[in-house]
Design a protein that fits this description.
By secondary structure, this protein is α+β, with helices and mostly antiparallel strands. The chain has three domains: 2-197, Aldehyde Ferredoxin Oxidoreductase,  A, domain 1, CATH 3.60.9.10; 227-415, Aldehyde Ferredoxin Oxidoreductase Protein, subunit A, domain 2, CATH 1.10.569; 425-593, Aldehyde Ferredoxin Oxidoreductase Protein, subunit A, domain 3, CATH 1.10.599. The strands form four sheets. A six-stranded mixed beta sheet has the order 2-1-6-3-4-5. A six-stranded mixed beta sheet has the order 8-7-12-9-10-11. Strand 16 (411-412) and strand 17 form a beta hairpin. Helix 2 runs parallel beside helix 24, helix 21 (465-481) runs parallel beside helix 23 and helix 21 packs across helix 24. It is globular. It starts with a strand and ends in a 5-residue tail after the last helix.
């Protein structure tokens, strides 16, 4: 396993072989990147400091003959949260990076002028990007495709150049390593793009086994996941909307009566043009959509989180405006979740009289005003007026307007909420609170057993610590391999036995279930250690006060609220399961059992 170390200040390159011990103990992807970040970042370094590492990492499963093997990871210290951050994206860039002979890239320093990194079979090279600086994601990707035929690019847009705190890194124009501001860190380094073009074979211990697993995965999704193949994630609007757990008006409630107007049937029947898929994906869950009435745009998406956060969470039932907002976020390179949530926060501040048209630059912020929503997305992407403040995220937005404003910032550790109201899916609330990167729905999908399957009582947090920890370990493994989580659930049933088969076919390391669980626990614990070192702790493992004090006031989940007492007890039980003390600090024994000595 080989990674490329790049010093953007000096322009020097260094090849680094990853020790076999690190490969077996962390696999790759998110786990290995977390260990590298912990070791190489100085304590307390500012996310925009040149010494903050930006790490692109594939996993041993990336680019193999297996199904759902498209993903790559980006790890850094988040400018949005100050915590460890790993973001993932599919498409085709990750497999192409592995075909260059590299499994990852570790970037430090800051170039004196805009550059992009080009990696081919012949090796790495830094190229001038002065003429690309200022161009949007679509323009940049198209230009690089012309210059380097057959190559794949991951790029930042103007949002990343201006260091908006939730700027994304984009590939294939619409695929995003989206959350937490990885694009802003890339912009702070004056790095516009990473372009890869390789023809080498990707290492895989048992390619025939991986081909066999691909065939069985393809058959499974055809038999069991027809709805997901048709709708993609847009089908989730119907589930959360019907249950009354869809974020509405900055999470003041969980019920949006017009949810069907922005749901899967509306997307597929009125706007969908075709399916799109990542590398070696039999699921084809991506949708190309077109708006033609109120807005004129053809784009990829929107996904569920975008539909919910630009829809119900801003009181907006105009689907075409959501399609447009999604396209603008992709064009400028911004996380749709944090962008929409920060706009929703601004709308509530306006509703409460904390801000006025004086602060918004003459824009009245009225729930459901889709024209204003789209205008604010454009302003944010360009860094214009009030939009520049929206680009700072909800925590920093509210800090500008005093203590009263702060209670309307819906985030955990500074990261805004995705599309699940934790009052109506309370294990998900514990997942949000304990996630190492902030309010994240991808570190543990507790909404599946609680809401989709209904096998856990969704109206209590009691008893959720154990299933949550188990899910966090499993999902950490998928992020180390790296395996698409939709594939892991729809084709491999989130089964530990299947994860062992995939890991061993890719690596040949001979893992058992217990051995692989230890890899997941070790990687998660290193992330926890990083956050503790940066000053985060139990005080940050919580939810905004609203979820403990304001019951959902309408709809099917009416009256639901999280018991603070039960939450604190369950949080303590969760710490104990990990072998941490009552403040959430890993004990020496817990670290010793995982072999963590650094």
């Amino acid at each position: 396993m080989r990674v490329l170390k790049v010093d953007l200040r000096s322009g020097r390159f260094e090849d680094r072989e990853v020790p076999k011990k690190d490969q077996t103990e962390y696999l790759g992807g998110r786990g290995l990147a977390a260990k590298i970040l912990y070791e190489e970042n100085k304590t307390g370094v500012d996310p925009f400091d040149p010494e903050n590492r930006l790490i692109f990492m594939t996993g041993p499963y990336t680019g193999t003959f297996g199904a759902f093997s498209a993903f790559y990871n980006v790890t850094t210290k988040s400018p949005l949260t100050g915590a460890i951050l790993s973001a993932h994206s599919g498409g085709h860039w990750g497999p192409m990076l592995r075909r260059t002979g590299y499994d990852g890239i570790i970037l430090k320093g800051r170039s004196s002028s805009p550059v992009y990194l080009m990696i081919t079979d012949a090796g790495p090279e830094l190229k001038d990007a002065s003429d690309l600086w200022g161009r949007d994601v679509f323009e940049t990707t198209s230009e690089l495709k012309k210059r380097h035929e057959g190559a794949r690019s991951t790029v930042i847009g103007p949002s990343g150049e201006r260091k908006a705190r939730y700027a994304a890194i984009m590939n294939e124009m619409h695929r995003a390593a989206g959350r937490g501001g990885v694009g802003a860190v890339m912009g702070a380094k004056n790095l516009k793009a990473v372009v890869v073009h390789g023809t080498k074979d990707v290492s895989q211990a048992d390619p025939e086994k991986l081909k066999e697993l691909f065939k069985s995965a393809t058959q499974t999704v055809k038999e069991k996941s027809a709805a997901f193949m048709k709708y993609g994630t847009s089908m989730v609007v119907g589930i959360t909307g019907k249950a009354g757990t869809i974020p509405t008006r900055n999470l003041q409630t969980g019920y949006f009566p017009e949810y069907e107007k922005i749901g899967g049937d509306a997307v597929v029947n009125n706007h969908k043009k075709k399916d799109v898929a990542c590398y070696r994906c039999p699921l084809h869950c991506g949708n190309v959509t077109k708006a033609e009435k109120d807005y004129q745009v053809e784009t990829e998406g929107p996904e569920y989180e975008t539909l919910a956060m630009f829809g119900s969470n801003i009181g907006n039932a105009n689907l075409e405006s959501i399609i447009m907002a999604n396209d603008l976020c992709n064009r400028y390179g911004m996380d749709t979740i944090s962008c929409a949530d920060t706009i929703a926060c601004a709308f509530e501040l306006f509703e409460k009289g904390i801000i006025t048209e004086k602060e918004t630059g003459g824009l009245p912020l009225t729930w459901g005003d889709h024209r204003t929503i789209v205008r604010l997305v454009e302003m944010t992407g360009k860094g214009e007026g009030f939009g520049a403040l929206v680009g700072e995220g909800s925590r920093r937005l509210t800090e500008r307007f005093g203590p009263e404003a702060r209670k309307y910032a819906m985030n955990v550790k500074g990261m805004e909420f995705p599309g699940y109201d934790p009052r109506g899916i309370q294990g998900m609330g514990l997942a949000f609170a304990t996630s190492t990167r902030g309010a994240c729905h991808l570190r543990a999908t507790m909404y599946v057993p609680e809401l989709f399957q209904g096998v856990l009582d969704r109206f209590t947090v009691k008893g959720k610590a154990k299933p949550l920890k188990e899910m966090q370990e499993l999902f950490t493994i998928t992020d180390c391999l790296i395996l698409c989580k939709f594939g892991a659930r729809n084709a491999f049933a989130n089964s530990w036995d299947n994860m062992v088969s995939l890991a061993n076919a890719a690596t040949g390391f001979g893992y058992t279930v217990d051995g692989l669980k230890e890899v997941g626990a070790r990687s998660w614990t290193v992330e926890r250690m990083f956050n503790l070192r940066e000053g985060l702790g139990r005080k940050d493992d919580t939810l905004p006060d609203r979820f403990f004090t304001l019951p959902i006031h309408d709809g099917p989940s009416k009256g639901a609220v999280v018991s603070r007492e039960d939450f604190e007890k369950e949080l303590g039980a969760y710490y104990a399961l990990w072998g941490w003390d009552e403040q959430g600090v890993p004990t020496k024994q817990a670290l010793s059992e995982l072999g963590i000595t650094f």
